[in-house]
Amino acid sequence: MAKLGIVCLLALSSCLPSVRGTLYGASSPVTTLDASSFDTSLRTHGVSLVQFYSETCDSCLRFAKDYEAAANATRDVVRCYAINDDSVSKRYNVKLFPTFKVFLGRGPSEQPTLADYTGTLNIQDLVTFTMKHVNKHVKSKVPAPKRKEPTKPAGHPISLTEAEFNNKVLNDTYNQWLIMFFAPWCGHCKALEPEWRRMATIADQVKIGSVDATVHSALAQRYGVKGYPTIVLLAQGSKVPAKAIEYRGPRKAEDILAFAKRHYRNMGPPVHVDSVYDLKQKCSGPLCLLFFLPEESVEMHVDTISKVMEKNSSLPFQFCYTIGGRHPQWERVLGVSLIPCLLGLNLSKNVYSTMRKENLTFDNVNAFVSEVLSGRVTAERLLTSLEDDSEIRSEL
C-alpha cells in the first residue's frame, strides 16, 4: 500500500510543472513569457492580459483551465500571457499569486500603461474587467470630435444702454471691458466700426461694448467723453470712472487689444475645470495652478484663491480648480494623495510640481507662487496623459 502511495505521488508530480514557465503548454491559448520576451511582447500588442504565477501556487494551478477559457473567449482582441519570473514580478510589485494585470500597449518605444485586476478568481469578472479596458484602449485611438467654440455674433459688439452698462459692466469685476462711446453721425466712428466689429470676434480676455453717447449722454459725461469716438478700457476690479483708462493709440483691432493686454489683471475667481478639454483650454499658458478642492468647502477655498490672484494680478498664471474625488485618474497620475492639494502644471512641457504644505491657506499658496517664480520648486515629469471623465466612468 505504501508503494502504491509513492507511485501515485510520482504520477501526480509528473502532471505538475517541474520547471518555470511550463504551466501552459505550446498548444495553450495562453503564451508563456520570460524576462527577455516580456517587454517586447507587451509593447507590441494593443491589449494584453498577464497572469503572474508561481509553480508552487495551488490557486494558480486550479485556475489555469479557467484562464485558458478566458484566453479563448477574448483571443480576437486580447493577448493572454503568463509569466513566472521573480525579477519581473518584483518590478511590478507582485506579492501574491496569481496576480492579473491588463497592459495597454503604446508602441515599441513607449512603456505600456497598466491596470490591476483586484477582483476574485472568477472567469466572468476577469473577462468583464479586461473587455472594459479593450473598450478604453480603442476609444483612445479614435480622435475625439472637436468641440465647437461658442461663436460670438460676427461683427456685433455688445450694444449697451445705461441700464445694461450698470448691470453688465459695473457688476463684472472679473473681466476687462473696452467701451466705445460714439455718435451715429460721427465719420471717425463709422471708420472705426469695422475694426470694432472685428475685435468682437477675436478678443479672448476682454469684452467689447458700444454706447451711443448721444442717447446716453449722462453716462458718457461720467466717463469724461468730450469727443467721438472715445475708447475707454475698464480693467478687472472696480469700473468706476476714476479707474477708466482712455485709449489714444492707432485704431486697429490688434493695437487696441494689445493695449488691453498690457493692463490685464489676473483677478479671481479661479476657473472650474471638469474635463481634460477644459483643462487644455483654460490651463494652456506657460504655467497653470491647479487646485483639487474638497466639495464641502469649495466656496471657502475659492475665496482664498481669489485673494491670492488679486495679490498676484500681474502674473501670467491661470488659476483653475476641480473637485477632489471626481477625477481619480488625474489624482493618480499627478500623485494627489490629500485633498485639498495645489499643483503647478505646464501641459506644453508635461511637467508639474506639488505644493508640499497640506493647508491651503493664503500664506501657503502665496509662498508656493513665490517659489514657482523663483524656480525653487522641483518639477516632475507627467508620464501618463490625463483622461476625460467619460473614459474614467466607462471603467466603473
Describe the protein.
The protein has 396 residues and is α/β, with parallel strands linked by helices. It folds into 3 domains: 31-139, Glutaredoxin, CATH 3.40.30; 158-263, 3-Layer(aba) Sandwich (Glutaredoxin), CATH 3.40.30.10; 271-381, Glutaredoxin (3-Layer(aba) Sandwich), CATH 3.40.30. The chain is 38% helix and 19% strand. It contains 14 helices and 16 strands. The protein has helices at residues 2-15, 35-44, 58-74, 86-91, 123-141, 162-169, 187-202, 217-222, 253-262, 276-282, 298-311, 328-333, 362-374, 389-393; strands at residues 31-33, 47-52, 79-83, 99-104, 113-117, 158-159, 176-182, 206-212, 230-234, 245-247, 271-272, 288-293, 318-323, 341-346, 351-354, 380-381. The strands form 3 sheets. The protein has a 6-stranded mixed sheet with strand order 11-13-12-14-15-16, with helices on both faces. α3 (58-74) links the parallel β2 and β3. α3 (58-74) crosses α5 (123-141). The protein is elongated, with a radius of gyration of 31 Å. The relative contact order is 0.07.
